């Protein structure tokens, strides 16, 4: 706890004298200050502060510094699951801790990466860090939340589904099968299958089989479908899982940003830059 002690005012340590309690204990003022109290007096980030990033939920580095010092040692691993402006990762880097930062917001990752690079460059110049680099990993397919409509339409084209706009539940046909497309923001779940089962109960004369299209599935889904198909000679269910299906899989790809640029000099002071083609980091083929 010595790292987070609150220093006494100047002169307090010199003036303070050792006291003996009624139990015979000798009490001295700790030279590094008193232990932190329940309420911490930490100033907010003012508008001119160097650490200010204009991120809405940014916390003062002084706050994270105290928390990290109190709860970890140099070399320990600090995890921030909502990295935001990167204050936790930056402070951990400065304090000689390893760190992991996660965020669904690409802007947050970009901001954190940029600020960390500045810190690491300075540390390398001063030979102050054991951790001179870091990596960025893309996990899962959260971009589909931003491309929901486009992703579904691409899946329809990829598989060859004939769209049906008149049915409130099913999305189209694939051959003779009715097609149900599961929201790409979550994997196929037992709840989705229960909703399908409830819908079929409303259609006792429906004898067509069902094709479900999903992006991922829960582990319990496959045995449920197997059991369903054993008991139902009609309305059999076929699953097209767009990550692993033998015929329709490989729907998703991860690409780095690519651009085809044409640069033309207009005069000594002007240059025309034309972006003829651009592929953003995306997951939809």
Automatic annotation (TrEMBL):
InterPro entries: DNA_methylase_N4/N6 (IPR002941), RM_Methyltransferase (IPR001091), SAM-dependent_MTases_sf (IPR029063). One of its GO terms (biological process) is methylation. This is DNA methylase N-4/N-6 domain-containing protein. GO terms for cellular component: cytoplasm. Residues 4-111 form the DNA methylase N-4/N-6 domain. Pfam families: N6_N4_Mtase. Keywords: Methyltransferase, Transferase. The lineage of its organism: unclassified sequences, metagenomes, ecological metagenomes. GO terms for molecular function: DNA binding; N-methyltransferase activity. The keyword Methyltransferase applies. It comes from marine sediment metagenome.
